[in-house]
Structures are given as C-alpha cells and as structure tokens.
Design brief:
Helix content is 69%, strand content 0%. It is mostly helical. Helix 2 packs antiparallel against helix 3. The radius of gyration is 21 Å and the shape is elongated.
C-alpha cells in the first residue's frame, strides 16, 4: 500500500518547514505558557487556578498547531479538504492543550506555593 503512494517533493518541503520552524516555535510557546502561569501564580493576583491552566494550554496548543496545519495548503490539489483539516486541527489542538494545561496546573498548584513577598506596599519593604 505505502509503496504505491507517489512521492512528491512538496512532502519534503512540508516536513522541513514543520521540523525546522514549527519545533522551535512549539518549544518557545511551551516555555512561555509555563512562565505565564507561574507569573500569575506568584503574582499579586494569584494563585493561578486550573482554569488559567486550561486557557493558557488551549492558546499554546493552537499556537503549536498553527504552522503544521497551514503547510497543508502548500501545493494542494484539494483546498477545501485542507481548510477542513486546518479547522479540525485547531479545535483538536485547543482541546488537547486545554487538557494538558489543566493537568499541569493541578500539579503546579500542589507543588508550587505562591511566594508573597509584596503585601500591597511598594517595594515589599515594611515601613519603620
């Protein structure tokens, strides 16, 4: 079955774009999402909730799915199917990212206690 599939050079281009550009973007977005949650968790408006993890995870998931799904539009013979693929991929990535974000937020809430240095005064220094 796999032997009868014709090779097109566009498959190599899509793979190179996904691995060469998509992977570094995904790594950056993952780190950025965790940092945002930790800033919220340790900030004055914290502690961060599991809902914060869900929302941040969904946004990160959609960001990670951005480039790989858009490569399906490169030299496609079926643009309508490619558009459907992009929409389904974004929805699935948002759901998967939200689930992973919720799990990481639940684990983070139990292992990272918020540091409250500043008690509402500027600089965190008690007046004399």
């Amino acid at each position: 079955m796999l032997i009868t599939v014709p090779f097109r050079h566009v498959y190599t281009l899509r793979l190179i774009l996904c691995l060469g550009i998509g992977c570094p973007i995904a790594a950056y977005l993952n780190r950025f999402g965790v940092e945002i949650w930790l800033i919220k968790h340790q900030g004055p408006t914290g502690p961060a909730t599991v809902l914060d993890g869900v929302l941040i995870g969904a946004a990160v998931g959609m960001g990670i799915a951005l480039l790989p799904s858009l490569t399906s539009l490169i030299k496609t013979n079926h643009p309508e199917m490619a558009k459907s693929f992009i929409i389904i991929t974004y929805c699935a990535a948002a759901m998967a990212g939200g689930i992973i974000g919720a799990i990481l937020a639940a684990v983070g809430r139990s292992h990272f206690q918020p540091d409250r240095v500043d008690s509402g005064r500027s600089g965190g220094v008690d007046p004399p």
